[in-house]
Design a protein that fits this description.
Keywords: Membrane, Transmembrane, Transmembrane helix. It comes from marine sediment metagenome. This is Urate oxidase N-terminal domain-containing protein. The protein is mainly alpha-helical and 291 residues long. The chain is 61% helix and 11% strand. It is built from eight helices and six strands; from the N terminus they run αββααααααβββαβ. The strands form three sheets. Strands 1-2 form a two-stranded antiparallel sheet. α1 packs antiparallel against α2 and α2 runs antiparallel to α6. The protein is elongated.
């Protein structure tokens, strides 16, 4: 049912937006917090720095430990669910929009004529393989230099963008660059940052001294996430803008003729029962009147 599908897409899109705001906000907050840390003579042993903040009528005193404090508090707040729900809701939206209407929104038959299942398989494989390739490079000696690593990743993304434009529609190709980058970010949280922090917590509970490398690796991936945030926002917002001006949501098409004036009408394009090429190009309609 197209109406049910529209409501599911609406719910997934808003869940995606809300959780992404929470995730991006917390990411920017901690980068700003790190930059604002100050050292003082009365810091506890092992503390790297502290910061006093005022917000909402209250005062906050925050201290950072590069490894961990000698004793853990009874309650720890984990910043992970924002990332998980952002990626899950984004993938659900990808399935509802691009996979369920792959013949219109995903595959460009003017470029290559492949079955729907092949286009979807390429899409999913790019997310999975993209993560493993990124992770392996980060774990290698090559990944020790963040500047060199970021430049290499930029070249990889450009190559992927070219490859996607040979198969997918322009909008789908653009979205997949954002989806691959967002997958790196969320997988960093799920497979690297949180597990490393759990290793530290487990060592502290067992009375062991945690290895500082876990915190260093987590910090590197967290920094990657921060720098990848703005490109991902650009990719997703740009794709959303194109989508809302596209055929399914309504497209404004002018009919220009000599000595005539065109009135633009939003054209609601039917997802089914129309040729995919015509839908992708848009259906020009206008009410003309004599000037």
């Amino acid at each position: 049912d197209p109406i049910v599908l529209d409501w599911l897409q609406f719910a997934a899109r808003w869940l995606h937006v809300i959780t992404a705001i929470a995730w991006i906000g917390s990411s920017f907050y901690f980068i700003a917090l790190d930059l604002g840390l100050r050292k003082s003579d009365d810091l506890p042993e092992g503390a790297y720095g502290e910061e006093w903040q005022v917000h909402g009528g209250g005062f906050y005193h925050i201290q950072k430990y590069l490894v961990a404090p000698e004793r853990l508090p009874d309650h720890l707040t984990w910043f992970k669910w924002e990332s998980y729900w952002t990626w899950l809701s984004g993938f659900i939206l990808l399935c509802l929009t691009y996979y369920m209407s792959a013949e219109i929104y995903l595959i460009d038959t003017n470029k290559i004529d492949i079955p729907v299942w092949a286009g979807i398989a390429i899409s999913i494989a790019s997310l999975v393989i993209g993560w493993f390739a990124y992770d392996l490079v980060c774990k290698s000696k090559f990944g020790d230099d963040n500047t060199r690593l970021m430049f290499t990743l930029y070249v990889v993304l450009v190559a992927l963008a070219w490859g996607f434009t040979q198969i997918f529609t322009g909008r789908a190709a653009f979205l997949h660059i954002g989806a691959i980058t967002a997958t790196w970010m969320s997988a960093n949280v799920f497979l690297v940052i949180i597990p490393n922090q759990k290793f530290v917590v487990a060592d502290l509970k067992a009375g062991k001294t945690p290895d500082a490398k876990y915190g260093q690796i987590a910090k590197q991936r967290s920094t990657h996430n921060n720098y990848l945030t703005l490109p991902v926002i650009f990719f997703m917002l740009r794709t959303a803008c194109v989508r809302h001006l596209s055929t399914r949501q309504g497209q404004l098409m002018p009919a220009r003729t000599a000595k005539r004036r065109s009135i633009f009408l939003p054209v609601r394009a039917c997802r089914r029962g129309q040729d995919a090429r015509a839908v992708r190009r848009g259906v020009p309609l206008a009410i003309r009147r004599e000037s």
